[in-house]
UniProtKB/TrEMBL annotation:
Keywords: Transferase. GO terms for molecular function: glycosyltransferase activity. The keyword rRNA-binding does not apply. This is Glycosyltransferase family 4 protein. It comes from Microbacterium caowuchunii.
């Protein structure tokens, strides 16, 4: 592996998707649109490691067409990663947030193994949900690529199990995700209509389920925050307001104005909705969720009702019951369970430290508990 020395001297290349350029993100942060200075708060890893970030290249129409065509052909964004190859070459380790990036990093390693020798900590999100739909040649290709990574990180036990079964003999670690907490909700106002909050753009939101529940509960105000075309295409009843808001506004004010959070989910493997689950519990709100994808682990010990997929009657009844109770939970619960963004980043630092020093990965990175401060450089 390139580099050497103490952990705090190691370079980590952070490869995020095209559109999350850190300079543009920081401008959004300065305008108050997002809570964190960098995407996914990866900057919290410093000073334990030296971070260098992937950058978006300005694209004219032909360049964008080329990048997107290659992405459709391969199934991942190779052109974006290729443009950042110098960053990967000089890094000791690479962090990727999804398979759209880590498969491209692996292809670099296949094509030029002597040049691209950095350890790769590859996080997958949707890959194992999509795996059964892939052609046999593409699965063979992806298996070759996946074996180039030192560690695959996933956010649910179901993703972990699917990954290990599909491509055995690799190190696959389930780590709990963590995110920025929301402003806690205040006390319920007497006589005020109860407000159900629904948040999400993920492909595994069950908008038909939510539509049936919203139609059956006209007495409840439903605030639906989504940029998904699948959500906006539905004919929602008058008690539903669909809109988009900036992340910072959502965390500061939207959760605080809600009474219940609904998580209508389709069957999945990747803990779809885990970010919203953490945010809801940090606001002290009850959650009504479909029990799929490993979301139960994120909602454990919280005021959460878990229901089978597709059961609209049960989902509707649970929403009505939670709204009628108007109960507030303990907003400190996610912090006690290690679900902050700092905990998440500390888990990645710990895994990276283990890979670079060829030490066993600590069991702590897989636990729903606060991490020790792995972001402090360890000097032997």
């Amino acid at each position: 592996m390139p580099g050497g020395g103490h952990m705090g001297e190691h370079r980590v290349a952070v490869i995020v998707r095209h559109g999350l350029d850190p300079t543009a993100w920081e401008r959004r942060h300065e305008r108050g649109e997002v809570m964190d200075r960098t995407p996914y708060a990866y900057h919290l890893a410093e000073p334990a490691v030296v971070l260098e970030w992937s950058r978006d290249r300005a694209e004219h129409a032909a360049a964008r067409w080329w990048r997107m065509s290659v992405k459709r052909l391969l199934g991942f964004d190779f052109v974006h990663v290729w443009r950042n190859r110098a960053l990967i070459e000089r890094a000791d380790a690479v962090w990727t947030h999804t398979e759209r990036e880590h498969l491209a990093v692996a292809l670099l390693k296949v094509l030029r193994p002597r040049r691209y020798r950095s350890a790769s900590i590859a996080q997958s999100v949707w890959l194992w949900d999509l795996w059964p739909t892939l052609s046999a040649p593409r699965r063979r290709f992806f298996r070759i690529l996946l074996r180039r990574h030192d560690v695959e990180v996933v956010l649910s036990r179901m993703n972990r199990d699917a990954s290990r079964a599909a491509v055995p003999g690799r190190t696959v670690v389930r780590v709990p995700f963590g995110t920025h907490f929301a402003q806690p909700a205040g006390d319920n106002e007497a006589g005020k209509p109860r407000r159900i909050l629904v948040v999400g753009n993920d492909r595994h939101r069950d908008w038909d389920l939510m539509l049936r529940a919203a139609t059956a509960l006209p007495e409840l105000d439903i605030d639906l925050l989504s940029l998904s075309e699948n959500a906006s295409a539905r004919a929602w009843p008058p008690n539903v307001r669909i809109r988009g808001v900036q992340q910072a506004d959502m965390l500061r004010t939207v959760y605080a104005a809600a009474d219940v959070v609904a998580l209508p989910l389709r069957p999945n493997l990747h803990a779809s909705g885990c970010t919203v689950a953490i945010e809801a519990l940090s606001a002290g709100l009850p959650v009504v969720a479909v029990d799929t994808g490993g979301i139960d682990e994120y909602l454990q010990d919280g005021d959460a009702t878990l229901l089978p997929p597709g059961d609209a009657d049960a989902f509707t009844a649970a929403l009505a019951d939670a709204a009628a109770r108007g109960r507030r939970g303990d907003p400190a619960l996610p912090a006690r369970r290690g679900l902050s963004e700092g905990d998440y980043v500390a888990r990645l630092v710990s895994i990276t430290r283990s890979v670079l020093t060829r030490a066993p990965i600590p069991e702590a990175v897989q636990c729903f508990a606060p991490m020790d401060d792995e972001r402090t450089p360890h000097h032997p």
